[in-house]
Design brief:
The structure holds 2 protein chains of 2 kinds. By secondary structure, chain A is mainly β. Chain A is 0% helix and 49% strand. The N and C termini of chain A lie far apart (34 Å). Chain B is built from no helices and 11 strands. In chain B, the strands form 2 sheets. In chain B, strands 2, 4, 5, 9, 10 and 11 form a 6-stranded mixed sheet that branches. Chain B has a 5-stranded antiparallel sheet with strand order 1-3-8-7-6, with no helix packed on it. The relative contact order of chain B is 0.33. The chains are: A mainly beta, B mainly beta.
């Protein structure tokens, strides 16, 4: 299966701890996106990479959030000093040059901050 | 900013019935996307529409790109239990420096066997 994968699927952490999530996109896709989704809502855009360049960041992405895609392949999303309001599903998606709007999502990482 | 609205918010139907849902915006969209999300999973792309008036099918699913470019519709024929989930419409906004895709709030579908 060559779909988008995310790790871990679930993360429970205490407030104030740092967490890091990983996303592996579909191999031939050059665009990678991070979204956050809370219960009853659609995914909300966080940030976007084209190859290794981070081209756009949402205002939702506070200074505690950082994302990287060092070699234009996998990406990591780190949240420092987690807060209870960070509890959400974090989704990664990727798309290709030929169909940039057709984003394919991973299964998500469910974060619970206690 | 640009925003998508979906209706109905939720629906309960009998297995075998047809389903219709829609997505509207006050702004024009040049592409419409429909996704389905199962509990605890990421959204799965069902259909992409690129042209006003376009009607596209994927099995029992049919989606239409509204003529005004401000709406889109998704129909599911002869519903089955595995159709249960949340259906999201989405589209690229033109209000940012790149084509960010925004999502509607979703329509939750329940199918009663």
């Amino acid at each position: 299966d060559t779909g988008v994968s995310q790790d871990p699927r679930h993360k429970i952490t205490k407030r104030g701890q740092n967490v890091t999530f990983r996303c592996d996109p579909i191999s031939e896709h050059n665009r990678l996106y991070w979204y956050r989704q809370t219960l009853g809502q659609g995914p909300e855009f966080l940030t976007y990479f084209q190859n290794e360049a981070q081209l756009e960041k949402s205002r939702l992405l506070s200074d505690r959030f950082s994302a990287e895609r060092p070699k234009g392949s996998f990406s990591t999303l780190e949240i420092q000093r987690t807060e209870q309001g960070d509890s959400a599903m974090y989704l990664c998606a990727s798309s290709s040059r030929g169909s940039i709007y057709e984003q394919y999502f991973g299964p998500g990482t469910r974060l619970t901050v206690t | 900013g640009q925003q998508l609205n979906q209706s109905p918010q939720s629906m309960f139907i009998q297995e075998g019935e047809d389903v219709s849902m829609n997505c509207t915006s006050s702004s024009i969209f040049n592409t419409w996307l429909w996704y389905k999300q199962d509990p605890g999973e990421g959204p799965v792309l069902l259909i992409a529409l690129y042209k006003a008036g376009e009607l596209t099918s994927n099995g029992r699913l049919t989606a239409q790109f509204g003529i005004t470019r401000k709406d889109s519709f998704l129909n599911i024929s002869a519903s089955i239990p595995s159709d249960v989930g949340i259906y999201f419409c989405a589209g690229p906004t033109t209000k940012t420096s790149y084509d960010k895709v925004i999502f509607g709030p979703g329509t939750s579908l329940s199918v009663i066997p």
